[in-house]
Amino acid sequence: MDFGPLRLKLGTQAYDYEGNSYSWSRVYGGTDGSFVNEADFTMGYLNARYTISPLSYVKASLSQQTYETTSGNENYLNDIEAYGRRTKTWGSANYYKRDRTGFNPVAPDEFFGVAGYGSQYTSFDTRKTTTNTISFDYTNQIGYNELKLGASIDNHEISRYGLSASGVARAIAQVDTDLDGLASEQEIIDYAGVDGAKDWRFINYRSLYVTNLGYNIYGDEWSGQYNQDDHMLAPAEPTQSRFYIQDKLEFKDVVVQLGVSYETIDTGAMAPDSDNDGYGDSDGFNNLYFNRQRVNRNGDGNGNYVWKFNTCWFSIFTHVLKAI
Ligand SMILES: [Ca+2]
Ligand SMILES: [Ca+2]
To answer: What is the C-alpha end-to-end distance of the chain, expressed in Å?
Structure first.
């Protein structure tokens, strides 16, 4: 297609990866329970170049890229409560000959003359980053000068969830008196009492090194609202921006490049801000309100120390001076 001085380029790229790693010493009776990692990447872009004159042009670009990677036990992957679930059903990926504590499987080396831990892979981790970029550059040749200026904005959305899922299995095993691998409401009440049962799940997950950004602590994706009961958090959305201007001077036997750029990052993070100036402050942090072991982001109910989006900017100036 001929758009005269306008040239467009549209492109896309993607890959999908799945890797398994087996550790025979960890697995009893085969490869069940091994580690799996899945990753995919997609990218699309639109580049435009507009020729203003034989000596000047403008380039602009729009792109989006997404990278997602998840690793865990291949039998359960996203099903956190199934990690290490115990069942007496022979042939099940969840089969365990339990020891008398009820927590642990009997290690294979107690049956056979082999070295082994009798454990399954019990960590889970997933992360996803989407980046949208918009940029433009302008170039103009004026005599000895090649003048360039441009700007770009990158907006990221980052979510992540990870925990030591073996702790979930242990917590369930602690209350699971009928040995079906599940913690029923009644079993939790029998163990922790009616009041204790309300917090039982929260308290158990909290201690498992849970990382949750764009998720609650149980691994449910962002629902659109912060929630102190399950600690639902929004994905991180930092924005980076950059502006630069440079001049390249070409003489007979020397080239001089001079430029300046200005870069910023806005983390888009929330913090308790007591005086509304857009920055978290000691008064805000010193007066956190708690409710049943959760930080209560609603403050004292009178609008004090409410969590707000805080602006956090930083800038880098660079000067380039080069002679060749
Ligand atoms: Ca049960
Ligand atoms: Ca403040």
So the answer is: 41
Q: Could you give the 3-state DSSP secondary structure of residue 169? A: helix
Ligand nearest to the CA of 285: 2
Q: Is 273 exposed, middle or buried (0-12, 13-18, 19+ CB in 10 A)?
A: buried
Q: Say how many Å lie between the CA of residue 200 and the centre of ligand 1.
A: 15
Which alpha helices (DSSP H) does the chain contain, by range?
A: 166-175, 185-206, 282-286
Looking at residue 93, what is its pLDDT? 65
Report every protein residue that has its C-beta within 5 angstroms of ion ligand 1.
Answer: 176, 178, 180, 182
Q: What is the DSSP code string of 36-50? A: EEEEEEEEEEEEEEE
Distance from C-alpha of 314 to C-alpha of 311, rounded to nearest angstrom: 10
Q: Which of 127-141 are b and which e, b meaning 16 or more Cβ less than 10 Å from the residue's Cβ?
A: bbbbbebebebbbeb
Q: State the average pLDDT over residues 292-303.
A: 77
| 320, amino acid identity | V
302 Cα–ligand 1 center, Å: 43
- Enumerate residues with CB within 5 Å of ligand 2 (an ion): 273, 275, 277, 279, 281
Closest-lying ligand to the alpha carbon of 273?
A: 2
| pLDDT (tens digit per residue) in 75-119 | 888 888 887 676 667 666 666 655 555 555 555 555 554 444 445
- pLDDT category of residue 262 using cuts at 50, 70 and 90: confident
Q: Helices 166-175 & 185-206, crossing angle to 10 degrees?
A: 150
Residue 259 pLDDT level (bands cut at 50, 70, 90): confident
Domain residue ranges of the chain, discontinuous segments joined by + = 6-147+157-237, 240-324
